[in-house]
Write a structure and sequence with these properties.
alpha+beta, 122 residues, 31% strand, single chain, 2 helices
């Protein structure tokens, strides 16, 4: 019976460690993505289709020493010159490569800006 309790305690510790790791990744990503909330709809729309729709690509190191990459991109959410979606993802290195050459980010976050500068669902 002691082994079951030990296993449960170990799983709880692992779950807590993963929550902290995920929380830190989301905090770093939110801070990076948040800078683009101050941009106007015009500033964001000027980047769409310009060949420069990647707003930011940065690398860093989390508190546990894990290296990460953040990519922030912008695109029309539903139709041209309408709502704009800005999406960011954080991926720890090495990346998990998917069949076909893509990768699986660890976390994603986004916001949608209306033409009047307000945010959808906020």
């Amino acid at each position: 019976m002691g082994r079951v309790g030990h296993k449960d305690a170990l799983h709880q510790l692992l779950d807590e460690a993963c929550e902290v790791d995920t929380a830190e990744k989301l905090a770093v990503l939110s801070k990076c993505l948040g800078r683009f909330r101050d941009w106007t709809h015009s500033q964001l729309s000027a980047r769409i289709g310009s060949g420069n729709d990647r707003l930011e690509f940065t690398e860093g190191v989390l508190s546990d020493g894990t290296q990460y990459q953040i990519e922030i991109s912008v695109f029309w959410d539903d139709r041209s010159h309408g709502d704009i979606r800005v999406v960011g993802d954080i991926t720890t290195l090495p990346q998990t490569v998917l069949p076909g050459g893509g990768y699986m980010p660890n976390a994603c976050e986004s916001f949608i800006m209306k033409p009047d500068g307000s945010f959808v669902d906020e």
